[in-house]
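pls read this protein.

:::
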Amino acid sequence: MEMGARAVIVKGGHMERAVDVVFDGNELVQLGGDKVKVENTHGTGCTFASALTAQLAAGRSLIEAATLAKAY
């Protein structure tokens, strides 16, 4: 991270449980959740990214924005 990104989000949607990891440069947080069984999962990452971006634009911290985006 010294030469690149100041923060990282790793999505865990392909694991047994949907656990995402967020690092904002200071704090490491795991956001856990149960998988929702749906037929079509195409676009779920885009939905998460859009919700995350909207929350960041509203002035929320990365961790708060990621938490709200995951809940969305």
Q: What stands out?
A: The mean pLDDT is 88. Residues 8-71 form one domain. The longest helix spans residues 44-57. The two ends are 28 Å apart (CA to CA).
